[in-house]
Amino acid sequence: MQPAKVSITQLLADGHSFYVPFYQRAYVWPENLWNRFIRDMEYISKTDEEYFIGSVILKKLGANGIETARWAVVDGQQRLTTLAIFYKVISLKNPNSHNPFDKRFRLDNNDLSIKHSLNDKEAFEKIANLTQDIELEGEDKSNLIKAYNYFRNNVDVNKINILNIQARLWFIAIYLEANENEHKIFDTINSIGMSLNTEELLKNHLFTSSTLDDYTTIWKPVFEADNACLTYWKTETSVGRMGKKTLSDRFFHTLLQIIMHDPRNNISSADKAEFRKYDDENEFSNYQKVIESGKWDKIEFAKIVAAYANIFKQIYSKKAIQENSESYKTPLKRILLTIFTLDVYTAVPYVLYILKNVADKAEQDKIFTLLESYIIRRQICNKVVKNYSDLFTESLIGQQILTYDALVEYLSNKKPNESLHMPYDAEVEDGFATNSNLTNEKARGILYLLESKLREIDGSLTILHPYTKYTLEHLMPQDWETNWPMPDDLNEVEKFEFKNNRNKAIATLGNMAIITQSLNSKVSNNQWKKKLDGGLKVKAGDLLTMKDVINQSEWDETTIASRAEWLAVKANEVWENVISSGEAEEEEMETARNTLDYTQYSLDNGVTYTSKSAFVVSAVKAYAAKHNSTIEQLREVFPANILKNFKRIGFICTREDIANKSLNNGRIPTMEEKQKWYHCNVEANWAKDSQGVDYIVSTEITKYSAQSVRDIMEADGFIVKTKQNV
To answer: From edge to edge, which strands make up the β-sheet containing 652-654?
Structure first.
């Protein structure tokens, strides 16, 4: 390795030729760097100062001795290519410059002294061979063309002194001997800070000059076939915790989740856990660990990458799936629509795994249909998704679950008290009635997928538009107070509870509909009949999920509950739980629901009855007062799992919890959400523990939660009475 300070004239001396290897990325300099380059050249032109443009690393390819060498450009091709384009523009715009491009970038035989092997070859030669100062077409296809046109339109030749530039512009050149490993040096340079992405670094790792034919037949057709292909992999999307990433980045992270479970690998559990995290800086090194662990033949590994990439490219496009009117008609398209609308991207590795390794299309369909039912049932029931990554990769891929029967058997072992349990029908019914935590996007997805299934069963001839053509409408509006008044005869406490219960009902699926266009806000918030006649009938009248709704003369909590029950019945039909009948469990749950079908509770021997939420809040305060309890002691007596799926940021929360504590996904809830879950802006709801710490109790109380608190209070000697809300 021989470093040296060299000028342009020295670097581009007679007889020197430069070859840009196939593993180098395409030309990527953006407009801001072109502009800076021009300003720098103008500065050099009028000063006597030397200017350092950067380093180049060159590996000897030809004869011994630098004087007659042919060099592979290991690093620095972006700068050399930019310099060449700049020289070409100067030569064309200023005929009196004695053609500096040909002097520095052509050999005696008229060949170009810089040659691109693959990327940018055509565009570079097109620019180099120009004989006239003309604008070039094709900016959308080549960044080199963009650079040429930018220089042509922005370089003022009157401000450029090419002789000064040649005398004062210099590089640090590092010359490698033919026996030195340029790939290792290239990896070292480019993996630090990830100036190249995983795709580019992995390509360099898998192929060498001796395996160029393999690269041409295996890798290039998948990742670099044409401009459309390059554009696809460079497309950026925002998904989940990964944030905004290119499809190339998404694919290689997805593939890592699959390939790390290949039985020939010996990857530790700790490494697998790290591999599941998206890490820009370490993604390529993770691939290196996998290749080394499995002692993979690099060409064989490249074939597996290409096979999965081909499948990914065929199926992975959120926009295409959501905007395609046929996206609900096959099990594969339905599971993709489910993933994209419900934000369950951790299922993608398993979908790819099935498509790659299960040849039987009918078997694939059965698996995807079951996955759809599983995901949607859990979404309806507000089941946590934080363990999905472990489920779809560590369990299903790791255990090579490749048949429908094997998937059924695996899920059958998940009991109701386990985090990955497939909800029973009774749970789905409860979900429709009580789950007020769905985002608009997820609610829209569930209703759209349900509507499409019902049409399939019904044989409906009307057109179901693509998913993106529908918006979500709250039948009873979120801003209801003006046109949907409360009863007149309520006291302040009753008004508070009425408002709380109504807001919860509004946020459930029973009160939601998909419509073809958003209603005008005035119409949307209007009284029920005016809302129907003002556009709701027209925009939702042909939907099976709205068939009975538009015939209702009134819309209130009773009709919301009735529709929720109807939707639940239909959902249980179309998303069948084939895992287990669960008859015993269902009967037990149903009995519990009927037994606990109380809406009002009393802690003062039946003198005053309050709602479930008010009862629970007062019960915790009463217990704390009796025992002079601290927060920690209260949390031991009243654990968070009392709330089941409504835990939020806790059952008993301090002011610090309310201000700073995040949800399971790391998101800090809005104050509007906190108010909905805790009524934390009502000072009367706050209490102090024995140490003077302020705390508040969740108001998201179900029958289950209320009964759990009742059991605790009665065991402590309190008298709790209940009565039905008649």
So the answer is: 652-654, 694-697, 687-688
| 265-to-261, 268, 296, 298, 356 alpha-carbon distances in Å | 7, 9, 9, 14, 19
Cα–Cα separations (whole angstroms), residue 525 to 66, 438, 474, 480, 528:
80, 21, 9, 6, 9
H helices present in 413-527, as ranges = 425-434, 440-458, 492-506, 521-524
* Lookup: tokens for 173: 């050149």
Rg (CA), the chain: 34
Residue tagged 């497939």 (tokens)? 422
Q: Which of 721, 700, 702, 699 is nearest to 710 (CA)?
A: 721
State how beta strands 2-7 and 70-75 pair.
Answer: unpaired
For β-strands 236-239 and 70-75, DSSP reports them as unpaired
Residue 517 region by backbone torsions, left for phi larger than 0, else alpha for psi between -120 and 50, else beta: beta
Q: DSSP for 272-301?
A: HHHHTS--TTTHHHHHHHHHHHTT--HHHH
CA 483, CA 443: separation in Å to the nearest integer? 25
In the chain, how many H helices and how many E strands? 35, 16
Structure tokens given for 306:
């290409």
Tokens of 107: 């050999």
Q: Note whether 536 and 524 are within 8 A (CB).
A: no
| Tens of pLDDT, residues 648-664 | 788 999 999 998 888 76
Q: Based on the number of CB atoms within 10 Å of its own CB, is 32 exposed (0-12), middle (13-18) or buried (19 or more)?
A: exposed
CB-CB neighbours of 581 under 10 Å: 11
Number of neighbours of residue 299 by Cβ within 10 angstroms: 14
Going 708 to 709 to 710 to 716, the CA torsion angle's sign is: positive
The amino acid sitting at 541 is: G
In the block, residue with structure tokens 């989940």: 240
Vertex 128 angle, CA 227 and 27, to 5°: 40
Cα–Cα dist 229/227, whole Å: 5
Distances (CA, A) of 67 to 14, 226, 231, 622, 632: 8, 38, 41, 92, 79
Does the predicted TM-score (pTM) go above 0.70? no
Q: Which helix (H) or strand (E) holds 696?
A: strand 694-697
- Give the chain's residues under pLDDT 70: 1-2, 14, 23, 62-69, 138-141, 180-196, 209, 239-243, 416-417, 460-461, 580-599, 645-647, 664-666, 724-726
Contact 558, 475 (CB under 8 A): no
CA-CA distance, 490 to 347, in Å (whole number)? 49
**Euclidean distance between CA atoms 64 and 60, whole angstroms:** 8
CA distance 549 to 559: 9
Give per-residue pLDDT as tens, 219-245. 989 998 887 888 899 888 876 666 688
Q: How far apart are CA 119 and CA 26, in angstroms?
A: 5
- Which token pair is 33? 């760097």
Residue type, 101: F
Cβ partners under 8 Å of residue 112, min gap 6: 105, 106, 124, 125, 128
Distance of alpha carbon 687 from alpha carbon 616, whole angstroms:
13
- Alpha-carbon distance values, 192 to 185, 202, 380 (Å): 11, 14, 45
Closest CA to 511 of 466, 573, 567: 567
Contact 325, 464 (CB under 8 A): yes
